[in-house]
């Protein structure tokens, strides 16, 4: 089984030439090339449905909890939304062509649950199905391997309103039904599936401090109208784990033949069928229990472990002063502590680094955004450290840069740019940045 600005015409002309000049530039790759990594190592790029698709209220798509959340003034920078975003729904061919031009092997995209099932369950929106079929088919036509993620923060609003979403066990069956439909519909072409993107973020930011939808927390922890920060993060996380396990169970039974608080919270149950001892000791009775049958279902319910890394968290004793390391530009190598941690505590599972990248502020000028030398330095340094970790035995088999395009960056709206490709949010034109051409050179094949 495979895993689961309106510009003056003169300025426009000159900056376009400036951007294209990078395609002929020779870059310092730090000694890295595709051949630096094992044969078959996968280089991809990634994005998520709500951040790039647009067409949020069109072609039959139902609202998600993010569609409701962004409508409240003050939740998102400049009160922006993903209603249009960068319109990958209509421009997917242009975007896939860019991936091919930059020599990427794979694209990790997410499927919008409410684009397939507007009400979370029941009637299928076949226009949504048609969109993902077109995207997948064009990726394959261009030699890009599709990696599908089933959930990237965007629970159908109907399920949140019906039974509080992740706080009710019904979500386990509803998610598994949705996942099974996707396996059946797209699984003849999609061979690598991911269930939940950053489940810790879903549980903590949605139910502890409530800064993300569904915006639930205790009043002393955030600006929420309802919620319980002492219990709900653990209930939501418990149901995420069981939803994952049920989806994997269905995949393995029906489709295989046809084709600690940060890490341990979710990984420990998948290996051992129980939560880490530290969590049991601290959370105590607030931590839900697995039944015997759930233990058997949860254990070993993954083939590939996907880690997202942007910023490393340094863990220190409560009475000791914190580290003075302040952000990801200062701690590129620290992220591999998580890879080492996994290897030490959970054997040596197959690991894919499914998101890694850095942002620039959205107020940079167009030329400044295109000449993203800091991003080049970031990727070069990070990939050198990755190679070192692999040389030391880390079982990493793939890497996905975040993101191929500037997009809607959740709470930051369009004030933050993570893309290898600049998107003009006025006309949605795409312009590859310096970092895009750096990847193009680094990923060139010797025999091409």
Automatic annotation (TrEMBL):
Name the Gene Ontology molecular function terms of this record. coniferin beta-glucosidase activity
Keyword Hydrolase applies:
yes
Question: What InterPro entries does the database record attribute to this sequence?
Answer: GH (IPR017853), Glyco_hydro_1 (IPR001360)
| Residues spanning the membrane | none
Q: Name one GO biological process term.
A: carbohydrate metabolic process
Q: Write down the superkingdom of origin.
A: Eukaryota
Residues annotated as signal peptide: 1-19
Sorted alphabetically, the keyword list is: Glycosidase, Hydrolase, Signal
UniProt keyword Hydrolase, yes or no? yes
Q: Which family does it belong to?
A: Belongs to the glycosyl hydrolase 1 family.
PANTHER family for the chain: BETA-GLUCOSIDASE, GLYCOSYL HYDROLASE
Full protein name: Beta-glucosidase
């Amino acid at each position: 089984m495979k895993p689961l600005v309106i510009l003056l015409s003169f300025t426009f002309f000159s900056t376009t030439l400036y951007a294209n000049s990078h395609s002929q530039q020779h870059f310092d790759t730090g000694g890295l090339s595709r051949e630096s990594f094992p044969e078959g190592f996968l280089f991809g790029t990634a994005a998520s449905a709500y951040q790039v698709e647009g067409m949020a209220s069109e072609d039959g798509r139902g609202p998600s909890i993010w569609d409701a959340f962004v409508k409240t003034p003050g939740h998102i920078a400049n009160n922006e939304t993903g209603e249009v975003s960068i319109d990958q729904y209509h421009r997917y061919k242009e975007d896939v062509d860019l991936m091919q031009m930059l020599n990427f092997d794979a694209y990790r995209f997410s499927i919008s649950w409410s684009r397939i099932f507007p009400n979370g369950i029941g009637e299928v929106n076949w226009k949504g199905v048609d969109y993902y079929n077109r995207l997948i088919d064009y990726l394959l036509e261009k030699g890009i391997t599709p990696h599908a993620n089933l959930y990237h923060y965007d629970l159908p609003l109907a399920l949140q309103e019906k039974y509080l979403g992740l706080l009710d066990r019904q979500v386990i069956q509803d998610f598994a039904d949705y996942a099974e439909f996707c396996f059946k519909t797209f699984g003849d072409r999609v061979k690598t599936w991911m269930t939940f993107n950053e489940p810790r973020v879903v549980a903590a930011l949605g139910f502890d401090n409530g800064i993300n939808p569904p915006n639930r927390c205790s009043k002393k922890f955030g600006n929420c109208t309802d919620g319980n920060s002492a219990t709900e993060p653990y209930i939501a996380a418990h149901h995420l784990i069981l939803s994952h396990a049920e989806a994997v169970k269905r995949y393995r039974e029906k489709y295989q033949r046809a084709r600690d608080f940060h890490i341990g919270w979710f990984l420990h149950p998948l290996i051992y069928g129980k939560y880490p001892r530290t969590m049991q000791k601290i959370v105590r009775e607030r931590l839900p229990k697995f039944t015997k049958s759930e233990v058997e279902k949860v254990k070993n319910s993954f083939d590939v472990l996907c880690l997202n890394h942007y910023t490393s968290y340094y863990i220190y004793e409560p009475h000791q002063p914190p580290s003075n390391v302040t952000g990801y530009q200062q701690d590129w190598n620290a992220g591999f502590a998580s890879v080492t941690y996994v290897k030490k505590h959970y054997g040596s599972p197959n690991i894919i680094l499914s998101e890694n990248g850095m942002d620039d502020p959205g107020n940079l000028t167009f030329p400044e955004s295109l000449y993203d030398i800091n991003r080049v330095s970031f990727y070069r340094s990070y990939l050198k450290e990755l190679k070192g970790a692999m040389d030391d035995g880390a079982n990493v088999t793939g890497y996905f840069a975040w993101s191929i395009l500037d997009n809607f960056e959740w709470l930051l709206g369009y004030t933050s740019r993570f893309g290898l490709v600049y998107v003009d949010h006025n006309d949605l034109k795409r312009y590859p940045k310096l970092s895009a051409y750096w990847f193009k050179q680094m990923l060139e094949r010797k025999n091409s």
